[in-house]
Amino acid sequence: MPLPAPTAKRTRMHVRSTQLDGDKRRDDGRDIEARRVDAKDHDYPLSPGLRKRGKAMPYSGYGDQIAADHSQLIGLNLLHGFRSAVKNLSRSTRGCSHVRELLSFLPTAALQTFASDVRDNDDSGHKPYQLDRCHALESHSDAVLRYYPRCYRGQKPG
Description:
By secondary structure, the chain is of the alpha+beta class. Helix content is 20%, strand content 16%. It has helices spanning 82-89, 97-103, 106-115, 142-147, and strands at 15-24, 30-39, 44-46, 49-51. The strands form two sheets. The protein has a two-stranded antiparallel ribbon with strand order 1-2. A two-stranded antiparallel sheet has the order 3-4. The relative contact order is 0.11.
């Protein structure tokens, strides 16, 4: 859904780009690569000095020195408890808010990466993962009645 046109003249002050790529490898494994870039369209002054337009890291030599032990995330289930593990690992000043935010996108990216390999309307008896994870696909919704009738739970009580 497009946003309404702005009613006042604007000058962009910041742009954040986030990209996640999910790949299927020849060995049937999956790789998810994530990157985030924050940039300004103008030079701006900070205590460490003038940050030139397009430069991303304002406190070089400081902000890039924290390295939370992300090896603790290896083997965790991306769909169950991963986001809370990331939060606990890098809470407050123990990590980087930018990395923490980027990691929080991994579960959804993983789901989308695997989605093409799983038929969501097969008769396996398992409820498709996406059901009951958003308003449109609540088990009591018309969308579930139409597309996943075996999982439809009738009108919502109350």
